[in-house]
Design a protein that fits this description.
Belongs to the universal stress protein A family. This is Nucleotide-binding universal stress UspA family protein. Pfam families: Usp. The protein has 143 residues and is an alpha/beta fold. The chain has a single domain, classed as 3-Layer(aba) Sandwich (Rossmann fold). The protein contains 4 helices and 7 strands, in the order βαβββαβαβαβ. The strands form 2 sheets. A 5-stranded parallel β-sheet has the order 5-2-1-6-7, with helices on both faces.
């Protein structure tokens, strides 16, 4: 029986939203926590001035904002759903995050796995070949 969390990767796209909804449904049925994670490759910090205020913005902030936005749409009473961000290329960041939290499953969408685009590779393809836990590839194509 699965007891560790499920991790799902999101990037703000409609297909990622569909993968996240499927991950939520799996986590609810299995009664395990769900981590919604967005990757960022930018380690730089940008300073933005607005009048007398100065804001510090980073790639991590943007990634976390995306994950938190998805979590708001997934909220289900009685479920533990957490937003997170991870630095690196999407597949590597997702795998690293999953290992860090002891995830037993990573859920990814099947975007870019059909036709000519599949030759170029995809996050789902990379995760499925390199993850140390189970991987669920959700059908996110609109029928």
């Amino acid at each position: 029986m699965m007891t560790g969390p499920i991790v799902v990767g999101v990037d703000g796209s409609p297909t990622a939203q569909r993968a996240a909804a499927k991950a939520r449904d799996l986590a609810r049925r299995l009664e395990v926590p769900l981590h919604v994670v967005s990757a960022h490759t930018d380690a730089t910090i940008e300073h933005v001035n607005s009048g007398s205020d100065q804001w510090v913005v980073s790639g991590a902030d943007n990634a976390l904002y995306i994950a938190e936005s998805v979590v708001k749409g997934l909220r289900t009473p009685g479920m533990k759903i957490q937003a997170g961000s991870a630095q690196g290329k999407p597949a590597e960041a997702l795998i690293d995050y999953a290992e860090k939290v002891g995830a037993e499953m990573i859920v990814v969408g099947n975007q870019r796995m059909r036709g000519a685009k599949r030759v170029l590779g995809s996050v789902a393809n990379s995760v499925s070949h390199n993850a140390t836990c189970d991987v669920y590839i959700a059908n996110t194509y609109v029928q």
